[in-house]
């Protein structure tokens, strides 16, 4: 778990600007404007006129697909869901059917039908219900509302607990497109000071060991200004992914992360780095958050501490952590995953835009 603090800085650049995601929603029909945030579990939903849709593709979806997305959005609105809840529905339909009403299933579910590939088990209504975009979306949203604490889950986990897909990370890759579609159809303006944002879904979390320099020599300088294959090196790679920075020049570097010019440094100083930027921290695991261990906490190195990344949140409140350099030699500078009980880490460090305020 050792992480070295005097890592070299390979590149310099402007201090990374905090992400502020602001959505302004114009409700069709009423003509009134209301502020909302797709990252927020509360707030007003958005309505869409399904007969007045763009003629151009949005995030690769067009025509009948956009009409189906509009019907999903409106089904969520009719149940009083927030924009975040509506977007979860669109994301799920993208992942299940590509926003098409499919009259066939697949190997695991040969009786699955419709936008959400709902099974013929009596829970999702009749065949006609499952093939009707509005009815199937309504039944999806009702099931979502029955998931305890769904508003506090990351969208992909919330969808998975309804759909029970074989791959719990299946829906993650559809979230950015769902945000884009809902924004366009609902006349939602998305402003992100840090560039494009997927609003709370880490770009590659869940895909395993994808560190580009995972075979590089340890203790040599990584492209992020850390030492190769240290815990801080992998965590900073995940942060760059969430910021949409997967190739050089990277947005988040050891030497440019903090606005005061200090190095982000070893795991020991990461919470100080977050505090220096004014970024949120808390005690609740969220997918993509940095797991921060102060020295000695949870078996972390007694001098440097340790950082990992929340890969998934389990139903019992525990979470699956991923990272590097979390095992004894000879497996120290390699990728690992492990289940951790909430309360073991010292804190969770969130990226703005992915943070959901904790309940008092």
Characterize this entry briefly.
The chain is of the alpha+beta class. Helix content is about 25%, strand content about 10%.
Provide an overview of this structure.
With 360 residues, this protein is α+β, with helices and mostly antiparallel strands. The chain is 24% helix and 12% strand. It is built from eight helices and nine strands. The chain has helices spanning 64-78, 83-97, 127-131, 133-145, 155-163, 175-185, 231-242, 270-277; strands at residues 22-26, 33-36, 188-191, 281-282, 290-293, 306-313, 319-324, 335-340, 347-349. The strands form two sheets. Strands 4-9-5-6-7-8 form a six-stranded antiparallel β-sheet, covered by helices on one side. The chain has a three-stranded antiparallel β-sheet with strand order 2-1-3. A hairpin with a 5-residue loop joins strand 6 (306-313) and strand 7. Helix 1 (64-78) packs antiparallel against helix 2, helix 1 crosses helix 4 and helix 2 (83-97) packs across helix 6 (175-185). The longest helix is centred in the first third of the chain and has 15 residues, at 64-78. The protein is elongated. The two termini are 33 Å apart. Mean pLDDT is 82; it is low at 1-36 and 189-198.
